[in-house]
Amino acid sequence: RLPCISQFRLSRRKRRKEKMKFAAILATLVGSAAAFAPSSQSVSRTALSETKGDLESLGKQLNPIVGYWDPLGLTDAAFWGKSDEFTIGWLRQAEVKHGRVAMAAFVGYCVQSNIHFPWAMTLDGTPFPSTDLSPPEQWDALPLAARIQIVLFVGFLEFYSELTPGEGVDSGLPHYTKGGKVGKYPTFDAIPHDVPFNLYDPFNFHSKMTDEQKERRLRAEINNGRLAQLGIFGFLCAQTIPGSVPLLAGVVKPYAGEVMAPFPEFM
Length: 267
Prior knowledge:
Elements: H1 2-35, H2 52-62, H3 84-114, H4 135-141, H5 144-161, H6 211-240
Helix pairs in contact: 3-6
C-alpha cells in the first residue's frame, strides 16, 4: 500500500507543478500583450484631413509632367460609405506603405541575387539558400517555421501601426483616415517597458528636421516607392512570364512557382 500512496503523492505533485507552469506561461503571455498597450502619457496630436485639391497640388510637385492622375476616380469613391477625406487618407497611406514595401523588396531582391550569408541560418547548422536559387526560390527553401515568423513579425508591425487612441484619450497618433499624418509610423515611446529603438529613425539622426524637410523627403519617398513598385514587379514578371520584360531577358532566373503564395506547400 505504501508504494501506491507514494505514487499518488508524486502524481499529485506533478499535476501541481504542471498547473503552476501553465499559470506562469499564461501570466507571461498576458504580461507580454499588456506590454504593448500604450500608456496614458500625453502626446501632442494635430488632425488635418487632406482634400482633392491637396492631391492635385501634390501631384504637380511629385511629377510636373503627369500631375494629378486618377483615371478610376478613386478619390470620389467614398470607400465604405465614408467621407472623401477618409478615402483620400486611406489611399495616401496605402501608396506610401506599398512604396516602402516595394523599396525593401527591390533592394532585398538585388541582395539575395548576389550575396550569400555565410553563417548558419538555423540552430542545427542549416545554411542560408544559395544564390544559385532565385529570390522566390530562396523563400520557398526557407523552413516553414522561419517563414511563419517573418509573416507574423510583419503582421505585428502592421497591427501596431493601426493602433490609435480611443475617444477622449490623449495619447498616441490620430488615424490617417481621421486627419493623422500619412506615412508616420508611431514610436514605441508610450509602451510601458523600455524599447531601445523605434522603427523609423532608430538612432535619432533626423530628429531635428523641420516640417518642410520632412515633407520634401516624403515626396521623394513616394516617387522612389512608385519606381520600386515597377522594379520589383518587373523582376517577378520577367521570372514568371517569359519575354514580358525584354530588358531583363537572361538577367533573372525563371521561376515556376507562385510568387503570391508565401506557403506553397499548402496549395
